[in-house]
Amino acid sequence: MSGGQDESETGTPCSEVLEQLYVYIDGELEEGDCDQVRRHLDGCSPCLDEYGLEEAVKKLVAKHCGCDPVPLDLRDKVLGRLARARQEQLAREAELGTPPA
Q1: Would residue 100 be called left, alpha or beta, if left means φ above 0 and alpha means ψ between -120 and 50 degrees?
Q2: φ, ψ at 20 (rounded to 5°)
Q3: Residues 43 and 10: beta-carbon distance below 8 Å
Q4: How far apart are CA 3 and CA 97, in angstroms?
Q5: What is the C-alpha to C-alpha distance for residues 46 and 35, in angstroms, rounded to an integer?
Q6: Closest CA to 41 of 6, 7, 15, 17
Q7: What are the pLDDT digits (tens) for 38-68?
Q8: 84: helix, coil or strand?
Q9: pTM
Q10: What is the pLDDT of residue 5?
Q11: What angle do helix axes 45-65 and 31-43 make, rounded to 10 degrees?
């Protein structure tokens, strides 16, 4: 998507705004960058449309997938598998005489 404005009109190219869109929607963008994105969206209909679409998708996913409870033992299982994988990697490196990373 090329957007409706170039850098000379808003100071921020459409491509840069679109790259930052998810971080902006998540509220994790620095305040100065938020201001740039807001100004751009105020004057760029194609980027504003893309923002609206991405925000709607995020809300829909959160509504339908965000309520599933995480199994209580999931964290332990993941950490256990990571520890075993690391031990296996260290064992392979020891067999080959390669120093650990």
Answers
A1: beta
A2: -95, 0
A3: yes
A4: 55
A5: 18
A6: 17
A7: 999 999 999 999 999 999 988 888 777 766 6
A8: helix
A9: 0.55
A10: 47
A11: 120
